[in-house]
Structures are given as C-alpha cells and as structure tokens.
From TrEMBL:
Superkingdom field: Bacteria
Keyword Secreted among record annotations: no
The name this protein goes by in its record: ABC transporter permease
Signal peptide annotation: none
TM spans (from-to): 20-40, 46-72, 93-124, 144-166, 173-200, 235-257
Annotated keywords: Membrane, Transmembrane, Transmembrane helix
PANTHER family associated with the record: INTEGRAL MEMBRANE PROTEIN-RELATED, MEMBRANE PROTEIN
Transmembrane keyword on record: yes
Pfam families per UniProt: ABC2_membrane_4 (PF12730)
Amino acid sequence: MLKLVRNELQKIFAKKSSWILMIILLGIITLACWVVAAVTPKADGVTLFSVTTSFNSFVTIFAVVIAAISLTEEFSKNTIKILLTRPYSRSQVLFSKLVAIMIYTLCLSLVTYAGSILIAMLFGNANGLTTVSKDWQNLTPLLSGFYGTLNNYVVTLFYIGLVFIFAGGFRSLGLAVTMGVGLIWLGSMASSLLSGFIIWKKLFWLKWNPLTQLYLNYRFGSGVIHIEDKLDVGYWPNLIAVLVYTLIFYLIANWIFSKRDISYS
C-alpha cells in the first residue's frame, strides 16, 4: 500500500502543472501585496498578511484541479488497466490517490502559509505579527493564520471528496474540473442563501446540511464572518461534520470507481 502511495506522489510531483500551480499561487500573493504596499505606503506586515489569508481559496481550487487530473488521466491514458493488473484492489488504488493528494494539498497549504509570511514581511515588516490582537480572535496573526490554513485544508478535503465522485463517474477531465471548481465558487453563495432560508423558515434542524457546515472555512483569519447563533453548532461539531461528509463523499466515489466499466476507457 505504501508503494502505491509513493507511486502516486511521484506522479503528482513529476507533473509540471503541480509546481506551476504552486508558483502561480505565490505569484498572486506577491502581486497582491505589492499592489497594497504601493497604494498604501504605510501598510505594515499585519495588514499585508491579512491580504494573503484571503487567497486560501486558491489552494482549494488548485487541489481540486490536481485531484481531477490524478483520477481522470488514468482513464484517458488507459493506465488504469495497468494499475489493476497489479495485486491491488480498486479501493486500494483510489485510497492511495486520496492519500497522495492529501499530502500534496498539505504541502501546498504550508508553502502558501510560509510564503505569505515572508512576502508580507518583504513588502511591510514583522511588527505585530506575533502580537495578540482582538482582530485576530485574541491570537497572534501568525497563529490565527495558521489555524485558518488548517481549517481551509479540512474544507479542501471536503471538495476533493466531491471531485472524486465526478472524476470517478465522468471520463472528461474538463467536466470533472469544471464541476469541482464551480462548486467552490457557488458554495459560499449557496451557503449564504440556504442559511437565510433556514433562518426565515426557522428550520434550524437543517443547519447540519453540508453547505452550512462549510462556515468552518471562515472561523479564523481576517475573513471572519458572523454566524447566526442558532446556526452555529460550535467549532468541534462543525469540524467533525465536515469530516463525516468528506468520508461519505469518498465512500460514494469508491463505490462508483469499483463499479465503473473500464473496458472502453
């Protein structure tokens, strides 16, 4: 099993796109800090760091793209048949891909976090980054940003579980990526609309739906939003709910992948 995971990691990091996406993300953060520093000369490191935290959603988007490529390429290049001739089950093959993508996403998240700190200090300074502040949930900006990165990582796993369903069921890479990225962009809007409907109709038992639980992504960092008291289930129940939904999506994807006919792939 470890050999499978190692093989999948080699595939991911051997792709130029895996590195290009990482460079693009750091480039976007650098450009954003440069623009803010140019427009606001007095902007300090904390201000610039708060700007970089808003780009966590790009980590999710890029991870979804890599997840879709990892799975659909096996069918488009017909290498899935080679994989299945080895002494591994389809479930093991899919799980190894999930673990490899989780590791890549973690690397992407940590590189983005570390890069954000360095870039913010480059265009600003380190003043205030290690100072406890009410604006950062009574934590230091660095610690609050780190928690935000971890929360975004968990939510990214949620979307990866979804894209596995699409990638496992569709033969088209473009369709799998479009569906995954589309859900990310629409997720926030749909979550707000659904939350408003729940409050309006007082159907508070619906707060456990997957879209409402994605508020986990906004609990830390400069992008904190107010969560209606009757919708707020608390941090740990929220975290567990996201992980449970992710597991459910993965099990559905595993069932689809196990049943899929590969004779015409």
